[in-house]
Structure prediction request, 77 residues.
Amino acid sequence: MGLRLWYLQRARLKGIIKGLSAIQRLAALWINQLVFRTSPTGGMEVLVGMVPMHILLKRLAAHSCTCMATLGHSHPI
Prediction:
């Protein structure tokens, strides 16, 4: 629910996505310990099987909106 609040309201996303991407890069380095620290982020994400952060956030926001749209009218939310 929080993702939809800041992602879909056109908030300043550049800094948030940059921070999340940096953490994802560290996770990719940790998972695939055979690459160098200077390896390109995109290449590491492909080797590990991660989806780039901006695409992942877009998919999560769309899925959240779809789930909320399919709830019944009597649902407590």
User: Anything to note?
Assistant: The chain has a mean pLDDT of 82.
